[in-house]
Design goal:
By secondary structure, the chain is mainly alpha-helical. The protein is 65% helix and 5% strand. The chain folds into two domains: 1-45; 53-132, Homeodomain-like (Arc Repressor Mutant, subunit A, Orthogonal Bundle). It has seven helices and two strands, in the order H-H-H-H-H-H-H-E-E. It has a two-stranded antiparallel sheet with strand order 1-2. Helix 1 packs across helix 2, helix 2 (22-29) packs across helix 3 (33-44) and helix 5 (71-77) packs across helix 6. It is elongated, with a radius of gyration of 18 Å.
Length: 132
């Protein structure tokens, strides 16, 4: 993979919770906007915008699985414009609303790992292993 595109990928991973324009990506790679878009799409298989959005939605999945944060808080942490954008984009990407995904995922975790509970202060799940 072109090292300039690797730089763009690194920039995206480091800033997944914020907004980055294709102009900023191009500047980091030392390329024009059209050239970075062309190289990125050819080497990664998705446009920079599409790939960056998928990274954000993966972060949303992780936050849904591991915290009790509200949807507006998750949207903010993932650098999405609003809760409604989060819900619309998530459903389009994964076929479930974020709320339904959280309920499904947590029911799967309880089935596989045993019952768990949440630490209300941090919002992180505490799983109790070896239940009777």
């Amino acid at each position: 993979m072109d090292p300039r595109i690797q730089e763009v990928l690194l920039l995206m991973r480091e800033n997944v919770g914020s907004e980055i324009s294709v102009d900023e990506m191009a500047e980091r790679a030392g390329l024009s906007v059209s050239r970075v878009t062309h190289l990125f799409t050819a080497q990664v298989g998705a446009s920079p915008h599409r790939y960056f959005k998928s990274l954000k939605l993966e972060l949303v999945k992780e936050l849904l699985e591991t915290t009790l944060l509200r949807m507006d808080q998750i949207a903010k942490r993932a650098g999405l414009k609003s809760r409604s954008h989060l819900e619309q984009d998530f459903k389009k990407e994964f076929g479930l609303t974020p709320r339904r995904y959280r309920m499904w995922r947590w029911s799967q975790d309880n089935w596989v790992r045993g019952r768990g509970r949440l630490d209300r202060q941090s919002g992180h799940k505490i799983v109790r292993m070896g239940t009777k």
